[in-house]
């Protein structure tokens, strides 16, 4: 049996860990311990995803909650170490690029436990992004690196990572999307919100660089004021964004837009249904750039850079600079094309990435013993 601790902590981790846990079970030969760090804790940021995706209840929840980067990272490390000591795993597996990823990764390697990083190699080349630091550090200490797109392989090789450790397997988050696409069609979210297919855009914003900065957030809101005259905007608000602006001028401006539907964060299936039937998505999320590529929906990414370039070169994504003018000019271009943009499915985004991960870990382990 391969003893492996699987770590998740924040919302985008849950749809990545789910297919991996299922693939381990299907493959056989794995004894898993699922650890939730508690980085995200609101019901609709965490529990809802476990219920909808039928992810097994975490064996352990470290319940770290929110805090500054240092406090959150340190608290995860402190609470994760005794868990790892007690379980004595052969591997710790982390996904994505959140604080839980690097915190548990560091604990593992300092205990001499081999580290696996799923979604390795992505680089925005912007070190002001907390996630970029998490990615660089996690990759540099990992023993097995599973990559979603060719750029990831190139980045890791350039950084001097031994190619034997790198495996281009595809995208586990897309495994989850493909497995749930049919189910999402049964969501009642469109009728609940009185939406017509292709007659609205979906908005998500949570990057500190966008939503913590009043000037930039103000530019984005000015653009939304114009766009919503034309197209309804559906905006499930991340707690960071809501907490920043509630009761303040910018929050009031957002709330006063008559053709914007503001929602609390919603579940995976409802969100997938919303995206799949939208005319357009405006976002600063990483994962949504990939999901819109698979769904064939135009995505305006409100960022200067992306760590997922294949969504632009092959998919339906475009980067948009953070000025009202740029956002509106991209919007008008897309509108004149009826929001259509052509794209193709990137290599290995075929629903089988997690199976490849399980097989490669199994084979690698077999060679060690
Ligand atoms: C984190 C990740 C980011 C990921 C995002 C997805 C890091 C550095 N960032 O950002 O990469 O894209 O998750 O959502 O790990 N809060 C709640 N309820 C919750 C969780 C958070 O109200 O369940 C609020 C708190 O005010 C908290 C703030 O959101 O301080 C930010 O949460 P945090 O986990 O620190 O970072 P995110 O912005 O969610």
Structure overview:
This protein has 369 residues and is of the alpha/beta class. It folds into 2 domains: 2-171 and 349-368, Glycogen Phosphorylase B (Rossmann fold, 3-Layer(aba) Sandwich); 181-336, 3-Layer(aba) Sandwich (Rossmann fold). The protein is built from 17 helices and 13 strands. The strands form 2 sheets. A 7-stranded parallel sheet has the order 3-2-1-4-5-6-7, with helices on both faces. A 6-stranded parallel sheet has the order 10-9-8-11-12-13, with helices on both faces. Strand 6 (144-147), helix 6 and strand 7 (166-168) form a beta-alpha-beta unit. The mean pLDDT is 97. Uridine-diphosphate-N-acetylglucosamine is lined by residues 10-12, 39-42, 45, 66, 97-99, 130-131, 206, 238-240, 243.
CATH topology of the largest domain: Rossmann fold
Query: Would you identify the CATH architecture of the largest domain?
Result: 3-Layer(aba) Sandwich
The fraction of residues assigned to DSSP E strands is 15-25%
**Please, what is the average pLDDT?**
97
Small molecules in complex: uridine-diphosphate-N-acetylglucosamine
Helix content: 40-55%
The counted number of beta strands is 13
Q: Give me the side-by-side strand order of the main sheet.
A: 3-2-1-4-5-6-7
Our count of domains comes out at 2
Oligomer: single chain
Choose one word for the global shape. Answer: globular
* Rg calc: 20 Å
Uncertain segments of ≥5 residues (pLDDT<50)? Answer: none
Count of individual helical segments? 17
Helix/sheet category: alpha/beta
- Terminal Cα span: 11 Å
| Full CATH superfamily name of the largest domain | Glycogen Phosphorylase B
Order of helices and strands: EHEHEHEHEHEHEHHEHHEHHEHEHEHEHH
Largest sheet: 7 strands, parallel
The CATH class of the largest domain: Alpha Beta
């Amino acid at each position: 049996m391969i003893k492996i601790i699987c770590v998740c902590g924040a919302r985008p981790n849950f749809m990545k860990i789910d297919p991996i846990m299922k693939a381990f079970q299907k493959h056989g030969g794995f004894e898993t311990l699922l650890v939730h760090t508690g980085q995200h804790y609101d019901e609709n940021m965490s529990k809802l995803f476990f219920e909808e995706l039928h992810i097994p209840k975490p064996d352990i929840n470290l319940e770290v909650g929110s805090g500054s980067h240092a406090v959150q990272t340190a608290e995860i490390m402190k609470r994760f170490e005794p868990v790892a000591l007690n379980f004595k795993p052969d591997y710790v597996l982390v996904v994505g690029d959140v604080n839980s990823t690097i915190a548990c990764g560091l604990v593992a390697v300092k205990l001499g436990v081999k580290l696996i990083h799923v979604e390795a190699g992505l680089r925005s080349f912007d070190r002001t992004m907390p996630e970029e630091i998490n990615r660089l550090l996690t990759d540099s200490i990992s023993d097995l690196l599973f990559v979603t797109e060719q750029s990831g392989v190139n980045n890791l090789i350039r950084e001097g990572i031994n190619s034997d450790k790198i495996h281009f397997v595809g995208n586990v988050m897309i495994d989850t999307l493909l497995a749930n696409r049919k189910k999402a069609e049964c969501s009642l979210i469109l009728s609940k919100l009185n939406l017509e297919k292709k007659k609205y855009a979906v908005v998500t914003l949570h990057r500190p660089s966008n939503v913590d900065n009043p000037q930039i957030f103000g530019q984005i809101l000015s653009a939304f004021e114009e766009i919503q005259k034309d197209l309804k905007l559906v905006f499930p608000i991340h707690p960071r964004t809501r907490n920043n602006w509630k009761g303040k001028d910018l929050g009031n401006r957002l709330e006063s837009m008559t053709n914007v539907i503001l929602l609390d964060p919603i579940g995976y299936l409802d969100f997938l249904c919303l995206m799949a039937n939208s005319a357009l998505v405006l976002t600063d999320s990483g994962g949504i750039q990939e999901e819109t590529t698979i769904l064939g929906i135009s995505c305006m990414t409100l960022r200067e850079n992306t760590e997922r370039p294949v969504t632009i070169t092959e998919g339906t994504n475009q980067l948009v600079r953070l000025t009202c003018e740029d956002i509106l000019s991209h919007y008008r271009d897309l509108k004149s094309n009826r929001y259509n943009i052509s794209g193709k499915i990137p290599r290995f985004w075929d629903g089988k990435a997690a199976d490849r991960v399980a097989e490669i870990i199994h084979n690698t382990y077999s060679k060690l013993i």
